[in-house]
Predict the structure.
Amino acid sequence: MNGPSGSAVFDTTRIIIKSLYEANKALREAILNQESASSRQRFLDNANHNISALESTLEVVRDEVKAKITIAKRRRNALLPISRIPKELLANILCIALDISPFPRFKPEHVRQLQNLASVCSAWLDLVRSTPTLWSVLESNSSLDLLHTVIRKSKSGPLHIIADWRPLGARDSSEQAVEKLYRFFQIAAGDSTLTDR
């Protein structure tokens, strides 16, 4: 590892390993020399302490390496051509890809598609979270929590409602949707479409 923190972790690890080796050696000698149980217990306690210290050091090293990998990936992603596309244009491209238009076709699991897009990289995660248009599709079979999330993230933008309120358990979703009726741009129910024009 480069840098002072990497070097310090390496030095600390080396000291702990050396101490553990010496404690194990002393314990072995104590057993061979048939020293008292209290002496053997002291050596065992020391060995256990050193093992715990090594495990803690390993966690620190693992976290530090993960953080450096994350930084390296973000730098690499920033160099990709797609990273130079303005956010507004990329948001429009994603809306087209998700078919968020004045007349969207029914696509199940719209939120799962958003989650997939958000998992591409941290820049796309930020874009998905901060673009109300991407959250404008509301499906009536959504859970109440998801309904609240979509309404919150879509901010004051128009909502595209894809509704099938016939199944049992959809009453709560439909009541929540009706409360926001003044924001509806389009309602697609079965084969029929009602658009606010």
Q: What stands out?
A: The CA atoms of residues 134 and 194 lie 21 Å apart. The first strand starts at residue 137 and ends at 139. Helices lie at 3-32, 37-79, 87-97, 110-118, 122-130, 144-153, 171-179. Residues 37-79 form the longest helix (43 residues).
